Predict the 3D structure of the following.
Amino acid sequence: MAAEGIARIGPGGALGWEAGAGEQPAALVLGDPARLYDLAALAPLAAALDRALADRAVHAVVLDLAHPATPPVTALDLLAAEAGFAVLAARIADAPKPVVALISGPVAGPWAALALAAALRVAAPGGGIGFPEARLGLLPGAGATQRAARLAGAGAALQLLLAGRMVPAAEAQAAGLIEMVTEAALPAARAAAAALAAARAGGAPVPFARDPQRGLGDPAGFLAAVAGARARLSGDLPAPWQIVDCVEAALLLPEAGGLAFERAVFEALAATPEAQALCWMAAAEAEGWDMAAAAPVPGPVAMTTEAADPAADLLAGGVPVRLLGQDVPALRTALEAIAALQEDAVAAGRMTEAARDAAWDRLSATTDATTLAGCQVGIAADGSLAVLEGALPPGALLAGFAWPLPGIGLQRHAPLDGLPLLEIATDGSSPALAAGLGLARAMGRVALPCQPGSGALPGPRLRAALWQAAEDLLLLGATPAAVDAALRGFGFATGPFEAMDRAGLTRQAPGTERLRPGLMAQLAAAGRTGLSRRRGFLAWPEGAAQGTDDPGVLALIAEERWVQGLPAPHQGGITRAEICRLALAALANEGARMLSAGVVASAGALDLLAGATLGFPRHRGGPMHWAGASGGRTGLLAMRNTLKAKAEALPPQMAGFWAPDPLWDRRIRAGRRF
């Protein structure tokens, strides 16, 4: 190989060499995007690196490590891959020839760890480095915690490693993690590699090359940054605490000892339930839906005044909106709501002032339905669907917030777990699906298509299942406050009875029509309609952050228990563990019913919905993951047995809800989880 050759790893991992000009080092370019932790993508790079290092005509190496950040399927996949990346990172760090990392685009996870192992890093302005592992319940491996701390000190390293975000190249340069950012990144990387090679051969030192141990120069400041990071941490998830421990080890241990410590911690974290659950959720989110099928949204979109939130989403996504109101006051209220949402987005940094102004310019309003004749898409709340349907031209798409509809149904969730989901209910036809996906993309939301037939959408069905299970738990001996406390202790954002009281007990929330007539209806009939009246399932004293049990409600529960033919609960009632076990079993059973009926495509989609609609804790993985988390087939069997036993013990009017769907037995026989 000539010294001026450029090694290029092309699609499929094929290795070729291109002629260059002058005394240039070898440049290895990874050109086949693959999964973030895919060892198959690593092998060609390692082989090409070995060839370049063995070639006497090559004096230095440039590695272009830009790589997409796609999450792994399981923590075990990640654990196996990390070992391979750790070996290659050590080979780069100990290479007999200078290795320069070229960061021409986003470099994430273990690929970023390889960049930190290089002698020097050169980035294009569009490049960046990031470590998503903390969001997966893990820590950045392959030496990342040790080399980041040694390069930039504890403060900068911890900001990078704990954030879980992509850090732009300029910001990383300011933190001391990248040495150079330039538009001509590849020529600069080649020149830097050649200069490093010359310096090693006895030439002049490279002015922009810095000591790879420079981050350890201020031990007191290093330890102060570690202490500050620990003081800011909260919660029980182990990964953030362990990341801080590993960064601290970079100062306290020799480099080899720090690397060994990091590896041991990585292995321990990969075995935790939290990592298994978070990796499951990340994989479910990454699977998503093929947005290539999404159809463009023709503007302007006709919308009624009840749809301020989705209108703001569409405006931010570049889609013109024409707002129809019954009268000027209704329009004024809707416009004020949209303006408030935009101001909130600006204040939170999600939108610039210029983008806000441009979005506002895309908005028009009218009280004259005849002016909507040019709109090809209309979105309305239940009561206004007929108005829009009559105003839109023939063939226009009608979307609403209920189901079934003549067009498509939408359920926009205010994300309780940070994931902006949009449920899209269709009849399964390709045009309807394409239109729904297009709306999701324009609204900046993660699409979750479903085919609910004549039933409710999946999100409301999950909510109704949790609420029904909560009511039944009262008849089995729990109190409303005890149920809420147990599920909040499990990690839910709010308890079901608090959620019911906040929504109101008049059966207007989507999905509540699926509930059996029972306590909710009796309370509403008695005027206990929820938080607005300070009386619902719970009593809400003035200024109280949480509701408390009410003696009148407890008496009503005891009376309903007698009416249903249930025995009085044993002394001490039902335990927190039993409350959680039964509530989660009911959620998983409702999910199994939807999977059986083909309402949703995957268990992962249901778990994403549970997080977005119920505040199910992400680090628990969702009800479908949780159902088998205790050991695959054994976990499913135990939960199925719980459901079966409960259905057999309850009177017929309650048993049907708890009877396990046949999908449980099919999955158990196949030795599969959901």
Remarks:
- Residues 576-597 form the longest helix (22 residues).
- Confidence is low (pLDDT under 50) at residues 1-24.
